[in-house]
């Protein structure tokens, strides 16, 4: 990874979002399973196409003030596999009690849509395209309107790779590479969203030559 950003790519990143007033940095956590090194071969309890969102984390950036101004976090109760795997609990630190007490995806989607009304002219961003694909799959499974339908999506990981001419990199590593200190728990929706927002603000600050 280059230590200095490509100025043209950095300016291109700002150009992508300069017409918007807000950016919603979003991170999802989902049901999942994976074989541990110590385990004997077995079928996965949750296959990749059965993953369901169990946490939605959102950090809202005011793109004029260049700061995070609001948060949204909800757990979501899974339907296909209501019992979290040990792998999922260890990865996310989300507890079974958290999802048992949560609302269904359609109800959380309604709450989030109401929250979104406070932030017109917004773009939303995520680290990679997984979150957009997962939200579409959740909506299809629940037979409801996709969250963020009609709101433009920005793959921030792709922009990061172009700015620093680097291969795919995890969010934690990308944040630390910029000189920021990771805050909170990795693989928690709200914490990942907050750190993603901090990254975006820093990149914009560099583009606008504030830093």
TrEMBL record:
GO molecular function: 3'-5'-RNA exonuclease activity; nucleic acid binding
Residue ranges of every copy of the Exonuclease domain listed in the record: 22-209
Pfam annotation, one family: RNase_T
InterPro entries, A to Z: 3-5_Exoribonuclease, ERI-1_3'hExo-like, Ribonucl_H, RNaseH-like_sf, RNaseH_sf
GO biological process, one term: DNA metabolic process
Keyword Transferase: no
Entry-linked SUPFAM superfamilies: Ribonuclease H-like
Record keywords: Exonuclease, Hydrolase, Nuclease
CDD domains given in the database record: ERI-1_3'hExo_like
Protein name: Exonuclease
């Amino acid at each position: 990874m280059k230590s200095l950003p490509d100025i043209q790519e950095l300016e291109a990143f700002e150009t992508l979002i300069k017409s918007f007033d807000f950016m919603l940095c979003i991170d999802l956590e989902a049901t999942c399973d994976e074989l541990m090194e110590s385990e004997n071969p077995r079928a996965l309890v949750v296959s990749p196409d059965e993953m369901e969102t169990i946490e939605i984390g959102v950090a809202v950036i005011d793109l004029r003030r260049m700061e995070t101004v609001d948060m949204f976090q909800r757990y979501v109760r899974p339907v296909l596999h209501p019992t979290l795997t040990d792998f999922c609990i260890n990865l996310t630190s989300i507890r079974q009690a958290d999802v048992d007490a949560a609302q269904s995806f359609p109800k959380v989607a309604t709450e989030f849509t109401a929250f979104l009304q406070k932030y017109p002219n917004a773009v939303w961003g995520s680290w990679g395209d997984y979150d957009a694909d997962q939200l579409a799959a959740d909506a299809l499974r629940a037979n409801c309107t996709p969250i963020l339908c009609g709101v433009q999506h920005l793959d921030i990981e792709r922009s990061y790779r172009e700015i620093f001419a680097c291969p795919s990199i995890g969010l934690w590593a990308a944040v630390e590479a910029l000189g920021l200190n990771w805050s909170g728990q990795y693989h928690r929706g709200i914490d990942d969203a907050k750190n993603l927002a901090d990254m975006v603000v820093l990149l914009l600050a560099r583009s606008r030559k504030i830093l």
